[in-house]
């Protein structure tokens, strides 16, 4: 009821009281007409003015048929009501005048079960005054005088799609105080980072222990001459694959070279000879990322290359192939050694004895042991958890509590799987794969049961069946969330406080491309994660030094986000293609977790920046640290900056000019654009403005024609004068 009158409100409240009275009279043994008569007597006693508007029936019985004609609650109903019968109690007043030459009706209908002590409502709903009556504001009821004057014109105006606002965000309220508080907080965070950097790197020679000097690795093929193979006596090139060494004859001596000292091997055909050219690694001969490769003594004498030729092309071809294979094997072995350098050997898992361990059943593991999806169980033991495959007994994975850095539980709301994710402190091996993330998940869909035929489902694809399927899926999701959440809490409890459960906040998430695909990145209390599918992303917030927003400028639909870690040797993480409409959301989140951020209009060369930082961190912070990233913001505020500090400001101005040139008014001349501005400032109609523009175009066209005519006349005069001279 919208804006009911006092009389309408009074009649509705009486109808509620009348229904309560009638429900009390619906008891075992009473006849239908007696119930109706008692309701009529109640109306006649309390509100006789409403008796003439009362309905002719107070309801009907419900049984095999929806409306049972044998049990009408009216003056004609002669049958008795029995216990546990069900009736529909319909009380109402029809055609009540409201004093404004119109009528209205009131009705209340509920399903009632007959009992010995009175009726029992089976369809209880909201019918109180506050639930059904709504009152509009007084301002809406009484429009202003100006609105009353404009009302006829508005009613007669034709519908249009033109909106009053000219800009998309014109009506959006901007909280200036919140923006100023955020800027002040960011300045405090930046100053704190600057102080921490100076304190951290002021000692230990200005490096703070951060610079790790590359050590020269000594490759020793043989300790003594007796270890040389017997084949060297033939004064030929010998390849010792066991010791990764190439033995070359030089002036009658067998000289061993470790394969890691070999830069490249070149084979060429020169007439009847086949030439092998050995090129070795020497100072100044390396270009690119390995330019800083250390040498034990850079001032020593090095052999840069050796060349051998022979008429036995078959042997040199075999040597070329054998040495290249040896070089590839050595490089592969070295890469594996570097890859496995940070892999830890965990302690043994202490199994629980005397009782059954808490178990999470029928879950899948990522990454899997052999690339195949297999179900298994996860058990909680004294000092860690164990995953045991249900197919192969040898596929077992132990994760100790001491190696767990973060434990995440991601519910299956708006997702296809429910996830229990573990981010490790040190990587471990799963099969032949090194990983720092272990995930246990279960799919929400029951399609696997339908495909295998283990569970035969009867589907008629009617509305009732679809509704039932949706309710089943909703219940299944809730049960899975409860099951996985309880197990994750048990892990945290068994770890004695070393591990806490973290849940992603989906409402704070934002889209981005951390790897190759666009995903939803979700913040948690301590991290920023993406856990739905590999490759996973887990960024610990307290390990982040700063964040920088790139490509933040007018006209672009996306921007990028770069995280720089406190450990400057780690490569910065890039999250690309974040929608520009989520810029404020990202800024608010970064500020709330105390991460200082800056923004700029272009992408920066972070490889060169981090190399400068790692070369001398103390000098970097002494010269201002990360302040160079925010110089563009300071310049935009109107402060005078040097030429170096205003580079970004200049580039942004050029970009803005480019966008203006590419706008829909780019085909107009400077004069025309100025005229259009004048017209927009004036109060002229569009038709008048268009007529003025056309007139100006015609005048301009005549001016161009007159100029052409002047040029033609000048040329004609010149030609006549030249003829006269002749």
From TrEMBL:
One of its GO terms (cellular component) is FACT complex. InterPro entries: Creatinase/aminopeptidase-like (IPR036005), Fact-SPT16_PH (IPR056595), FACT_SPT16_M (IPR013953), Pept_M24 (IPR000994), PH-like_dom_sf (IPR011993), RTT106/SPT16-like_middle_dom (IPR013719), Spt16 (IPR040258). GO terms for biological process: DNA repair; DNA replication; transcription elongation by RNA polymerase II. Its main location: nucleus. Residues 139-161, 191-212, 452-473, 631-726 are annotated as: Disordered. Residues 510-600 form the Histone chaperone RTT106/FACT complex subunit SPT16-like middle domain. Residues 711-726 have a biased composition (Basic residues). Residues 139-153, 191-202, 689-710 have a biased composition (Basic and acidic residues). Residues 653-688 have a biased composition (Acidic residues). Keywords: Chromosome, Coiled coil, DNA damage, DNA repair, DNA replication, Nucleus, Transcription, Transcription regulation. GO terms for molecular function: nucleosome binding. Residues 316-346 form a coiled coil. It is found in: Nucleus; Chromosome. It holds the Pfam family Peptidase_M24. SMART domains: Rtt106 (SM01287), SPT16 (SM01286). Component of the FACT complex. Belongs to the peptidase M24 family. SPT16 subfamily. Component of the FACT complex, a general chromatin factor that acts to reorganize nucleosomes. The FACT complex is involved in multiple processes that require DNA as a template such as mRNA elongation, DNA replication and DNA repair. During transcription elongation the FACT complex acts as a histone chaperone that both destabilizes and restores nucleosomal structure. This is FACT complex subunit. It comes from Rhodotorula toruloides (Yeast).
């Amino acid at each position: 009821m919208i804006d009911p009158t006092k009389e309408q409100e009074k009649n509705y409240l009486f109808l509620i009281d009348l229904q309560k009275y009638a429900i009390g009279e619906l008891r075992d043994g009473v006849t239908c007409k007696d119930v109706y008569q008692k309701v009529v007597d109640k109306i006649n006693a309390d509100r006789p003015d409403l008796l003439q508007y009362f309905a002719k029936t107070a309801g009907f019985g419900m049984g095999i048929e929806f409306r049972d004609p044998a049990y009408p609650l009216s003056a004609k109903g002669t049958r008795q009501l029995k216990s546990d019968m069900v009736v529909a109690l319909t009380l109402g007043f029809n055609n009540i005048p409201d004093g404004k030459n119109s009528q209205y009706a009131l009705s209340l209908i509920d399903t009632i079960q007959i009992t010995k002590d009175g009726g029992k409502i089976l369809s209880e709903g909201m019918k109180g005054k506050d639930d059904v009556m709504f009152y509009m504001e007084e301002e809406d009821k009484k429009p202003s005088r100006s609105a009353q004057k404009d009302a006829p014109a508005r009613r007669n105006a034709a519908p249009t799609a033109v909106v009053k606002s000219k800009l998309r965000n014109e009506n959006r309220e901007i909280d200036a105080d919140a923006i100023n508080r955020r800027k002040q907080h960011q300045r405090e965070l930046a100053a704190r980072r600057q102080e921490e950097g100076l304190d951290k790197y002021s000692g230990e020679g200005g490096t703070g222990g951060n610079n790790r000097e590359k050590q020269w690795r000594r490759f020793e093929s043989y300790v003594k001459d007796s270890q040389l193979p017997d084949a060297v006596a033939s004064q030929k090139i010998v390849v010792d694959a066991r010791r990764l060494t190439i033995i070359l004859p030089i002036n009658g001596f067998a000289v061993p070279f470790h394969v890691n000292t070999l830069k490249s091997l070149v084979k060429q055909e020169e007439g009847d000879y086949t030439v092998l050219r050995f090129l070795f690694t020497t100072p100044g001969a390396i270009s690119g990322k390995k330019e800083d490769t250390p040498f034990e003594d850079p001032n020593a004498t090095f052999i840069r290359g050796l060349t051998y030729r022979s008429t036995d092309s078959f042997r040199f071809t075999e040597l070329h192939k054998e040495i290249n294979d040896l070089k590839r094997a050595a490089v592969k072995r070295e890469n594996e050694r570097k890859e496995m350098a940070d892999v830890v050997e965990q302690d043994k898992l202490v199994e629980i004895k005397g009782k059954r361990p808490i178990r999470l059943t029928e879950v899948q593991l990522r990454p899997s042991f052999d690339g195949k999806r297999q179900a298994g169980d996860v058990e909680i033991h004294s000092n860690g958890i164990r995953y045991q495959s249900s197919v192969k007994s040898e596929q077992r994975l132990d994760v100790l509590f001491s190696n767990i850095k973060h434990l995440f539980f991601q519910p299956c709301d708006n997702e296809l799987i429910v996830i229990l994710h573990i981010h490790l402190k040190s990587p471990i091996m799963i099969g032949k794969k090194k990983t720092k993330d272990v995930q246990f998940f279960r799919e929400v869909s029951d399609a696997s049961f339908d495909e295998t035929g283990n569970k035969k489902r009867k589907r008629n694809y009617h509305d009732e069946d679809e509704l039932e399927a949706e309710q089943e899926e909703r219940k299944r999701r809730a049960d899975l969330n409860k099951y996985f959440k309880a197990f994750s809490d048990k892990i945290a409890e068994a770890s004695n406080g070393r591990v806490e459960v973290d849940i992603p906040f989906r409402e704070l998430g934002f889209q981005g491309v951390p790897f190759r695909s666009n995903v939803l990145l979700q913040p948690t209390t301590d991290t920023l994660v993406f856990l739905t599918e590999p490759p996973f992303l887990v960024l610990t917030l307290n390990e982040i030094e700063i964040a920088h927003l790139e490509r933040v400028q007018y006209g672009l639909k996306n921007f990028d986000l770069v995280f720089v870690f406190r450990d400057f040797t780690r490569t910065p993480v890039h999250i690309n293609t974040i929608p520009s409409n989520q810029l404020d959301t990202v800024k608010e989140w970064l500020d709330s977790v105390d991460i200082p951020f800056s923004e700029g209009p272009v992408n920066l060369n972070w490889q060169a920046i981090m190399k400068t930082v790692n070369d001398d961190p103390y000098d970097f912070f002494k010269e201002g640290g990360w302040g160079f990233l925010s110089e563009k913001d300071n310049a935009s505020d109107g402060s005078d900056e040097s030429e170096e500090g205003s580079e970004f400001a200049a580039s942004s101005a050029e970009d803005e000019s480019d966008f203006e040139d590419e706008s829909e008014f780019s085909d107009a001349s400077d004069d025309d654009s100025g005229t259009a501005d004048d017209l927009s400032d004036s109060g002229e109609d569009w038709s008048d403005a268009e007529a003025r523009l056309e007139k100006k175009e015609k005048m301009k066209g005549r001016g161009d024609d007159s100029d052409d005519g002047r040029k033609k006349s000048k040329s004609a005069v010149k030609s006549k004068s030249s003829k006269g001279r002749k």
